[in-house]
Write a structure and sequence with these properties.
Blueprint: E1 3-14, H1 53-65, E2 69-70, E3 73-74, E4 77-80, E5 90-93, E6 100-109, E7 112-125, E8 129-131, E9 140-142, E10 149-155, H2 162-179, E11 191-201, E12 211-216, H3 219-238, E13 246-251, E14 256-262, E15 272-273, E16 280-281, H4 284-293, H5 298-306, H6 313-320, H7 323-336, H8 339-357, H9 368-379, H10 385-397, H11 402-408, H12 417-430, H13 432-439, H14 445-456, H15 463-478
Parallel strand pairs: 12-13
Antiparallel strand pairs: 1-10, 1-11, 2-6, 3-16, 4-5, 4-15, 6-7, 7-10, 8-9, 11-12, 13-14
Bound molecules: zinc ion and manganese (II) ion.
Manganese (II) ion (MN) binds at residues 12, 124, 152.
Length: 479
């Protein structure tokens, strides 16, 4: 029997604030275990949490970037459960009054747009990490991550396939990167996805029983997990069984999942208002100020790039992959008034150099103004396209401006025709035999003579001008 999958996601994203949610301990990845902890984040009795203002602002910015309504009155709640990665035996989270509600993200798949609704985004503290690997009779706890600010983005069950889930997670990631609230590094765990999946027979409306797969940390494993779980549930139903509501663990190496525990419901957590933190209240003006502080989101930029700037969609998407590249592109395009050449230098030349050098776009050692200047030099024929590539290489190695590099290395084009003429006429004198053959009707020798001239000018002259001069002088010889 054919089935339709229904998928909802819960995405946990660590916020890149300087300090943790309720104490002054620094937020950063890795490090010596338990070196970034204090009595508050290790839950020593008697300590009190102090709410980090920046974390609240980041959570609200995330909500605005994902088209949410922001609640003007929010509070924190205790979510009670015991697991040794969170020693106080409850997590400070938000239950019924989260910061952000009713958002959405539009995804595009095979040329069609679809809106995925976001139910809520709440702010909570992250837990620590347990280390089991290579240990026999015990586990070790690292509390460095304890208390790192975390937002949880909960979607409506609007996702109907693994590919839609992939498009959604990629879009959310990009929006949060542009909003500047997280580095969204899935491989480092700063973005982790829980997948809720159910299937129902085609032609029916009632949703099937769902299962949950927790903490997927790559797009690839999200896609594989949804495909595998959809097939598993379908075969359970086909063989007359029923799907059990449970949390399953996805094993990315084996490409399969197994049951972990039966799924909790919200009432299992005994939520109650957190008595140590006063509710958060905002004015509409404060929310609007945060909205105004957000940079342009990727979909807005996409429309500009593919609209008035005339880039193909695939080029626009490639640049938009990175905030750093998008900013460099926009500055270069503005200064050179040539978005297409700016984009092609970034996509063809700069990305290749970054790849060769193992650098990320954030590490590009020059700004968009410098790149724009180089494009302008090309457009004004002060430099050939070939030498522009050499200048670009040197821009990675030196901190110099493109015009200084061109000048220092003799890349500046010989633009006066008289100068080119004298070089070309010397070449013709040195190659009387070839000239004679050309004049006798052997057109092939033109290419040879052209090669000699370009070589003598060492790439500093526009080949079109050299060709014209060569033709003109040979013509004279004919007369
Ligand atoms: Zn701390
Ligand atoms: Mn959570």
């Amino acid at each position: 029997m054919p089935y339709l999958p229904t998928i909802g996601l819960e995405i946990h994203v660590e916020l890149s604030t300087g300090s943790k949610l309720f104490c002054g301990c620094p937020v950063s990845f890795g490090g010596e275990p338990n070196s970034r902890c204090c009595p508050v984040c290790t839950s020593v009795p008697g300590t009190l949490p102090v709410l980090n203002r920046a974390a609240v602002q980041y959570a609200i910015k995330a909500g605005l970037a994902l088209n949410c309504e922001i609640g003007l009155f929010s509070k924190f709640d205790r979510k009670n459960y015991f697991y040794p990665d969170l020693p106080k035996a409850y997590q400070i989270s938000q239950f019924d009054l989260p910061f952000c509600l009713d958002g959405y993200v539009d995804i595009e798949l095979n040329g069609e747009q679809k809106r995925i609704r976001i139910e809520r985004i709440h702010l909570e503290e992250d837990a620590g990490k347990l280390v089991h690997d290579g240990l026999d009779k015990y586990s070790l706890a690292d509390y460095n991550r304890c208390g790192v600010p975390l937002i949880e983005i909960v979607t409506k069950p609007d996702i109907a396939s693994a590919q839609e889930a992939k498009a959604f997670v990629e879009k959310v990631r990009l929006c949060l990167l542009y909003a500047g609230v997280s580095d969204c590094k899935m491989e480092e765990g700063s973005m982790r996805v829980d997948v809720n999946t159910s299937v129902r027979p085609v032609g029916t409306d009632e949703l099937g029983t769902r299962t949950e797969m927790k903490n997927l940390n790559s797009i690839r494993s999200i896609v594989r997990c949804i495909e595998s779980e959809t097939a598993r549930q379908a075969s359970v139903l086909d063989s007359g069984g029923r799907v059990v509501q449970e949390t399953r663990r996805w094993d990315d190496n084996k490409g399969e999942s197994r049951a972990m525990r039966s799924k909790e419901n919200a009432h299992d957590y005994r939520y109650f208002p957190e008595p140590d933190i006063i509710p958060a209240e905002f004015t509409q003006e404060q929310i609007e100020a945060l909205r105004a502080s957000l940079p342009k989101m990727p979909h807005e930029r996409y429309l500009e790039y593919t609209g008035k700037m005339g880039l193909p969609g695939s080029d626009a998407n490639q640049i938009l992959e990175s905030v750093a590249l998008a900013d460099i592109f926009e500055d270069a395009a503005a200064i050179s008034a040539n978005p297409r050449t700016s984009a092609s230098l970034i996509i063809v030349e700069i990305l290749r150099r970054l790849n060769d050098m193992g650098l990320s776009p954030e590490q590009i050692p020059f700004d968009g103004a410098a790149l724009g200047k180089l494009v302008k030099m090309m457009d004004e024929r002060q430099i050939t396209a070939n030498n522009a590539k050499k200048v670009l290489t040197l821009m990675f190695e030196t901190k110099d401006s493109p015009d200084k590099i061109a000048k220092d290395n003799g890349f500046a084009v010989i633009s006066d025709v008289a100068g080119i003429k004298s070089v070309v006429s010397d070449i013709l004198k040195q190659n009387e035999k070839a000239v004679g053959e050309y004049l006798a009707g052997n057109a092939k020798t033109f290419g040879f003579l052209m090669g000699q001239c370009v070589g003598a000018l060492s790439g500093r002259a526009d080949p079109q001008v050299v060709r014209a001069v060569l033709q003109e002088l040979l013509q004279k010889g004919q007369d």
